[in-house]
Input
Amino acid sequence: MDDDRLTGAGRPIRSGRDGISDSYRPAIRATTFILLLSPPLASCSGVQSALDPAGHEARDVANLFFVMLIGGVAIWAGVVGLLFHAARKRKPYSEKGAGWVILWGGAVFPTATLAALLSYAVWLMPNIRPWFGEDAGVGRVEVTGEQFWWRVRYLDEGGAVAFETANEVRVPIGEPVVFLLNSPDVIHSFWIPVLGGKMDMIPGRENRLTLQAEKPGTYRGVCAEFCGTSHALMAFTVHAMEPEAYKAWVAARRKASGGQDQEGLALFLRHGCAACHAISGTEAKGTIGPDLTAFGERGSVGAGALPNGQEHIARFIRDPGQVKPEARMPHFSMLEEAEIDRIAAYLKGLR
Amino acid sequence: MKSFIPREVETLWTLFTAPTVWALHFLVCYATVAVFCAKGLASEVSFDTVRIALGVVTVLALAMIVLSAWLAWRQWGFGAADPPHDEATRNARTLFQGFATLLLSGLSFVAVLYMAIPMIFIAECQS
Output
């Protein structure tokens, strides 16, 4: 913040005694209040805001939040009003009148209000958590939370894995998608705030979450359950696409695609990257780490740790632990710089 | 006509009647739905059957709480005297217990109703 009044770097706010007249005080207070309020208000929108919904379920959640907020503010204002009233009232109420206030204000009103809010929230639930059972017509994506990245597998109509990718989720708009969530290591939580509520990924269990995007765009999903040192660096990109574009993308992904740059691929294979990583259409078939097919299109390097660019890829290969503490990938700083750069260029070029 | 309800119930245990009914109702609702869904009985019996059965349980629970409240109200002398009933006499103690039981019955009544609200809206088993 540049405002000297807030940082205290310039002329400090003084009480009436040492300079500023008391008549300025309310104005200063109001300005400060508005300035303090504007950052939180501005942060209500964005690619990762539950208050800026781009999907069906998230809109219900946002509505629920605002209804509760407005209700809460109204009740708070009422209680504060009552407090002022009580503080200013000279003549006490009769005992009967006080009993009346306690009965209606302390028992009947909260009971009725809570019943209304509870009913509203529970009434929203079937919409927020729709259920499609084994309906084969609904798209299914299996997402596995790993320390600290996301394995994403798109299933075909028969329930078999059509193709795998990582740290990126694509959904068609206007169609529900069922996410099958699980984890091989610790509890993670799958959360795309603009599309809906979060759901835990629990080892040994498959949780299901249905989301439906309505607004095309690129959003951000996060891990919402502390899962280790790099928990905060475990994010993914969400692309909500027009159904036609989505279909075209799925068709493209189902084809092999990684062999365009033979020299880069050879280097990638020679240094053992394929032990953990897979690239469709090549000999790289490792399954321990994230699938790197079409890596150049991904929104980030290291599951949201760095923006996607050749330099960042090289930096990650050199020492993943420096970018992402306790990442499972070993460092490759023993490789020559030129080779690291060449592999980074190869990965950035994958489409 | 001789009423089947005793003219006077004087034991501390009546104080817990309503909360106990609430706890049992809570347990029955949760356990029934959990077992119903976990055992995959949804294919044989419709969820609405469970809903109606638990509705009947809810009505029974509310009736028991109302009965407990009525007994408490009677014990309190139908509100003839005002609280706090803090004199060190047997009469004050009886009135105090009656009033406390009445308030607990009210709380339990509301708690049972709140417990029943999700049963109206819950759509199906999700597993």
